[in-house]
């Protein structure tokens, strides 16, 4: 189910702050565990693609902010959006095959 365009306004600020706090804790753990085999920039781009695919507004906002801080350009953010759209479209086509009866 797609969220309404103004759904962002319905997220309670305290809830968003709790999500950010958990995200910050995970980011600290990630950095402290030496999981930097991939640049932070690419991790955030992958997180954005997942957040767009799952349509999690809080996740989109948090990871877009982190991506910009990691040096991701607006063009790269747009490309992540297109990748997420292609993934969702691919799943739709695959599931549409279930509509065909022999």
Can you walk me through this structure?
- By secondary structure, this protein is an all-alpha fold.
- It has a domain at 37-102: Up-down Bundle (AhpD-like).
- The chain has four helices and no strands.
- It has helices spanning 13-32, 40-54, 57-69, 74-96.
- The chain is globular and about 55 Å long.
- The mean pLDDT is 79.
Low-confidence stretches: none
DSSP strand tally? 0
Radius of gyration from the alpha-carbon trace, in angstroms = 16 Å
Structural class: mainly alpha
Instruction: Determine the number of helices (DSSP H or I, runs of at least 4 residues).
Output: 4
Q: CATH first level of the domain at 37-102: which class?
A: Mainly Alpha
Helix and strand succession? HHHH
- In the CATH hierarchy, the third-tier topology of the domain at 37-102 is known as AhpD-like
**Oligomer class:** single chain
The shape, in one word, is globular
Task: Just name the CATH architecture of the domain at 37-102.
Answer: Up-down Bundle
Helical content (DSSP H or I, runs of 4+): 55-70%
Instruction: State the end-to-end distance.
Output: 29 Å
Q: Strand fraction band? A: under 5%
Q: Summarize the biggest pleated sheet.
A: none
- According to CATH, the homologous superfamily of the domain at 37-102 is AhpD-like
């Amino acid at each position: 189910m797609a969220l309404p365009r103004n759904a962002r306004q319905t997220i309670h600020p305290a809830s968003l702050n709790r999500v950010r706090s958990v995200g910050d804790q995970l980011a600290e753990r990630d950095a402290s565990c030496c999981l930097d085999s991939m640049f932070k920039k690419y991790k955030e781009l992958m997180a954005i693609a997942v957040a767009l695919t799952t349509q999690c507004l809080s996740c989109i906002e948090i990871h877009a902010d982190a991506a910009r801080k990691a040096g991701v350009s607006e063009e790269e953010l747009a490309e992540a959006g297109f990748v997420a759209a292609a993934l969702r479209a691919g799943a739709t086509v695959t599931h549409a095959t279930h509509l065909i009866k022999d």
